């Protein structure tokens, strides 16, 4: 797992930050620059489609972040023997559930 993937799966970014990251990705894909005023050639939802669906296979930051959060919620709900989950249950959930 790459370090940036690990960091993004641990730290929850705000929607505003994710929109800025998505904007930078869009601009870079189409112009090779971080900031541009050129119109984008293809809708972002099409770019994010898989290659089998004739997209570019780029992963949408918003969707990826939601999946990472869901993974941690799943772990908290189902892996009671994990030390990290025990800590979260004890500190934040106070044994509820």
Chain-wise SSE layout:
Layout: H1 3-10, H2 15-31, H3 44-47, H4 61-78, H5 83-93
Q: In terms of structural class, how would the helical and strand content be classed?
A: mainly alpha
β-strand amount: under 5%
Q: Whole-number radius of gyration? A: 18 Å
How confident is the prediction overall: mean pLDDT?
78
Describe the 3D structure.
The chain has helices at residues 3-10, 15-31, 44-47, 61-78, 83-93. It has one domain (3-93). With 97 residues, it is an all-alpha fold. It has 5 helices and no strands.
Describe this structure in a few short sentences:
By secondary structure, the protein is mainly alpha-helical. The chain has helices at residues 3-10, 15-31, 44-47, 61-78, 83-93.
Descriptors:
single chain; 97 residues; mainly alpha; 0% strand; elongated
